[in-house]
UniProtKB/TrEMBL annotation:
The lineage of its organism: Bacteria, Pseudomonadati, Pseudomonadota, Betaproteobacteria, Burkholderiales. Pfam families: MaoC_dehydratas. Residues 22-112 form the MaoC-like domain. Transmembrane segments: none annotated. It comes from Paraburkholderia largidicola. InterPro entries: HotDog_dom_sf, MaoC-like_dom. This is MaoC family dehydratase.
Length: 138
């Protein structure tokens, strides 16, 4: 994490991308335990197939957690003011998730200088899986 200032950042700047290991069953099981989300579509192959899926798939909140890592590798978590996402695609087993972000606005609010970011996860095929926005104070 670097110490950025408002004046250091320009609209259009990008955050250093975060690329994760391919999603695997161990990651899904560990995330289920850590999050308390034991929905069977994420951990039970037979159940996922009965639901019409080819296999289990990643929790949407796992991808949001990855985006949280992207943000907190760029600024201290205490600087985060807003963080929201939409789930636009399924992250399947074997997908290599890359998190990216881009500065889209600079402004002042509540006596702070802030930047707005567009953030997303995409798989190795460039397909967005989660898209969102974040606001950080600089």
């Amino acid at each position: 994490m670097s110490t950025l200032t408002f004046d250091d950042v320009k609209i259009g700047d990008t955050l250093p991308p975060l690329t994760l290991e391919p999603v695997n069953r161990t990651t899904l099981a560990l995330f289920a335990g850590a999050s308390g989300d034991h929905n069977r579509v994420h951990i039970d192959t037979d159940y996922a197939r009965k639901a019409g899926m080819p296999d289990v798939f990643a929790h949407g909140m796992l991808s949001m957690a990855y985006l949280g890592r992207l943000l907190t590798s760029w600024v201290d978590q205490r600087q985060l003011r807003e963080f929201g996402v939409r789930f636009v695609g399924i992250t399947h087993l074997g997908h290599e998730v890359t998190c990216t972000g881009r500065v889209v606005d600079k402004f002042e609010a509540h006596g702070e200088r802030r930047v707005k970011l567009e953030i997303q996860t995409a798989n190795q095929y460039g397909e967005p899986r989660v898209v969102g926005e974040a606001v950080v104070a600089l």
